[in-house]
Amino acid sequence: MSEQNTLIVVSNRGPVTYDKVDGRRVERRGGGGLVTALRGVREQHHVIWIASATTDEDRVVAGEAGGGEVVLVAHEAEAYDRYYNVVANPMLWFIQHSLWDQASRPELGLAFHDAWREGYARVNRSFADAVVAALDEHPDATVFFHDYHLYLAPKFVRAARPDALLAHFVHIPWPVDWSVLPEPMRRAVHDGLLANDVVAFHTRRWAQNFERSCEDTVGGTHGTRVTHHPLSVDVAEFERLQASNAVRAAEATLPRPEKLIVRVDRTDPSKNIVRGFHAFAVLLEEHPEWRGRVTMLALLDPSRQSIPEYVEYVADIERAVREVNDRFGPVISVQVADDFPRSVAAYKQYDVLLVNAVSDGLNLVAKEGPLVNQRGGVLVLSENAGAYEELAEWAIGVNPFDVWGQAQALHEALVMEAGERARRADGLRAQVRDRDLSQWIAGLLSDLPRAAA
Fold it and tell me: Is residue 311 within a helix (H) or strand (E), and if so which, with residue range?
């Protein structure tokens, strides 16, 4: 492939990670939706992927001589902890998902300022150095940054390589109000992103918010192109997966009530799991005819348990489940585990899929579930999920803070006439198929003429 087909992808997590098992190096595919989403890019372009070394064996690999298509950057341990566990998560994540209770939190002291300077900025500088080294080998390559971990790196790269073609995709929401972050830091976030030629989001809403916050913070976007392209799923992969032995085995273990409400989420405060349980309790209180006939199955992937706010939220989830089940019997079934085959099995069998996120850049559950569902299931979808912009026509929309409204939406979904259920399910499935992963990739590359050549 020519140099103009080379993409330098930069993200915190990489496509592979390494461990030692019985003295031998073992390579595993990296986790996360980004790895799956960019698989198609790797099939069409020469990709050099720069990511953090996150295991001991990753760090050994990072120190070995020689290039390759995956470049692992070994950060100093304390700097990485500050970067990831103090600044990126939870600070930036909480700001961008509107999760801070500003009457009491956050309270930024010297430790946070040190974490910004000695953690977030230092790690971003390390990433930028790795990008510059890659550009020395591939001077005509396009650099493709991803997400909130790397807001400062583009400016460092631009200073070293003024003519480089840089793009950044932000996978999470973008708020207008950044006032929680001290002024020099919020300027640095915006200046860093605006060092890119292109900044892209999943939705028009987040792109417009970015333009407004740039105007408020640094006086505009200064020539950077701002675009939006909603991510989708690998349709062929899901079709294979739904027929797999692992998913069929998981289906046999699912609860079999008359009606099944499913939610599939990480144990992240942004997913609004506790309010969803409260809404289910309101449904059973106001519509007692559903008692004994409907069960909620919550499949939850444990998330960021090194961060106190996430540990507290898991405790809140457990408390809410106990309260509802103590009142109405065993009506909520919860599994906290990384078990994707069971999630796909539940997707196939739900009557209602609840996605009530406080805020989400997109939310792939809202696309994955309808793609494989076999029961004419109804999607109840938060207005603050990025996917709502694309799927609202066939979903029942809810305000994520309106627990009573969510309960009414669940009832509406449960009593919906079969023909209307089928119409909505067919519409969702067709939309996901038509705007698949290849469309997302094509849209991104169309923003970057040199990369698309």
Answer: helix 308-328
User: How do the domains of the chain map onto residue ranges?
Assistant: 3-232+438-452, 235-435
453 residues of the chain, pLDDT tens digit each: 445 578 999 999 988 889 988 889 998 877 666 776 776 677 777 899 999 998 889 999 888 866 678 999 999 999 999 999 999 998 999 999 999 988 899 999 999 999 999 999 999 999 999 999 999 999 999 999 999 999 999 999 999 999 999 999 999 999 999 999 999 999 999 999 999 999 999 999 999 999 999 999 999 999 999 999 999 888 988 989 999 999 999 999 999 999 999 999 999 999 999 999 999 999 999 999 999 999 999 999 998 888 888 999 999 999 999 999 999 999 999 999 989 999 999 999 999 999 999 999 999 999 999 999 999 999 999 999 999 999 999 999 999 999 999 999 999 999 999 999 999 999 999 999 998 887 888 888 888 865 444
CATH architecture of 235-435: 3-Layer(aba) Sandwich (3.40)
Q: Which residues contact 305 (CB under 8 A, 6 or more apart)?
A: 311, 314
Say whether 235-435 and 3-232+438-452 share the same fold.
Answer: yes
319 CB neighbour count, 10 Å cutoff? 12
* CATH C-level class of 3-232+438-452: alpha beta
Using a cut of 0.90, tell me whether the model's pTM lies above it.
yes
Q: 410 Cβ partners below 8 Å, 6+ apart?
A: 261, 279, 280, 283, 352, 354, 380
Both tokens assigned to 190: 């915006």
